[in-house]
């Protein structure tokens, strides 16, 4: 594995970078048609927001033409042996815990090796957040490419730091690994600083982007994030692919 060697500006500069004012109109129409409960002027129905509805299992269907993603953790409570009773407990858990094979380069980088890349050295906390992103993508049964896009997006937005309220250093009310905004309907502050929730919220929007698996990474990420600097996601594609390759089996 190529050593991670290039450093970028310190966190305060990252956190204060101008960013989107709202989710894109296409995603508002496709995945954010309902407001989030618990905020002034929003619906009192917590299942009106499609991310929350999917997470609580109350969503009836995805927008027309969009893949259905179940954001609830899945897994069988047991298996049935031929001619025998259901098997529960440790045998089922052991089967579920079998490590997934490392993805191929074709899975991670369908358009080949990208150019003009940046790298940073990551500490344990950042790697832990990267593994949480990978785990969430696997939990949703999404292909490895989804994890690559999500990790690259977080590298650009927060350098894989789970950023909370930084006061004047915040870009508006942006929070967490993906700098999602409560005021734009992504979730409550405590949800957006939960790596599992914030990743699944990002991924639930990503899979509704037409051609998200085959279009350039920066286009897929920008359609979700609506950043003032939408071309900057591309620089993290190789490092994100390396991270997903190295940690996919044990995340």
In words, what does this structure look like?
With 251 residues, the protein is mainly α. The protein has a domain at 20-31 and 110-247: Lysozyme (Orthogonal Bundle). It is built from eleven helices and two strands. It has helices at 11-15, 25-30, 50-56, 90-96, 105-108, 124-139, 144-158, 189-192, 195-206, 217-225, 237-247, and strands spanning 78-80, 86-88. A two-stranded antiparallel sheet has the order 1-2. Strand 1 (78-80) and strand 2 (86-88) form a beta hairpin. The two termini are 18 Å apart.
Q: Helix share of residues?
A: 25-40%
If helices are DSSP runs of H or I spanning 4 or more residues, what is the number of helices?
Answer: 11
Spell out the helices and strands N to C: HHHEEHHHHHHHH
Shape: globular
Task: State the low-pLDDT regions, or none.
Answer: 1-89
**Tally of strands:** 2
Question: How large, in whole angstroms, is the Cα Rg?
Answer: 19 Å
Query: Which CATH class of the domain at 20-31 and 110-247 is shown?
Result: Mainly Alpha
Biggest beta-sheet profile = 2 strands, antiparallel
Range of strand content: under 5%
Structural class: mainly alpha
Q: Distance between the terminal alpha carbons, to the nearest Å?
A: 18 Å
Strand order of the largest sheet: 1-2
